[in-house]
Write a structure and sequence with these properties.
Elements: E1 10-15, H1 21-33, H2 35-39, E2 43-47, H3 48-52, H4 59-68, E3 71-76, H5 78-82, H6 84-100, E4 104-109, H7 139-163, H8 190-202, H9 221-230
Parallel strand pairs: 1-2, 1-3, 3-4
Length: about 230
Amino acid sequence: MPFPSLPRTIKIFFSYALSAPQDKRLFEKLTAHLSLLRRQHVIDEWFDSAIGAGSTISQQVIETHLHMADIIVLLISADFFADERCYELEMKRALELSDTGAARLIPVLLSPADWSISPLDRYRPLPLNGTPVSLWKNRDDALSQVAKGIRRVVEELVSKTMGTGAHSGPPKFSPYAIPYRSNVFFTDRETILATLASSFASTQTPQTPILALNGMGGMGKTQIALTYIYHPAH
């Protein structure tokens, strides 16, 4: 389907075992199959090695990106289950987000692994025939099927977004990335908060919208921003 101009890109988080060269190669091939969606500014892909950019990847940074993702793709292999970060952090957080409806979870079978006894056993994996990508005679055929499966989910999310005429909701911020707690005693800023919500919802751009609060020190700019982040439905 040709994609119209979108109010924002669909964010996809990929989780795979960085220590497994074969998993990395298959991941890179999969992203090549998704390149048209990326070139059309329909999707924005995140994965650990890109997030870290050569530096140490903190749990907080990973959780922030997971919470902002619309789709979480878990690239399953024996190495994935053996990887502490993949299993204990990214998979468990992905399951929580999927259970609450905050993100769509898609398992992709890269290589044989006894995934049916894992918490992922209730999900239907890609490729659709259940055969891991590494066992296909033509791996490009397998990855093409995986990419089409991901695209179908992207199309569903795009349809929901376009059906509202704007964002499906306010921008998704993660409290895990905020160094301050919500102030329950902060009141009397409903007009400003409503203006923020309206401005974000009406912004038509594939990029993350940015608004700046301007004023003298001590006027409550930080508290307004915190209130909006923790309670965006104004």
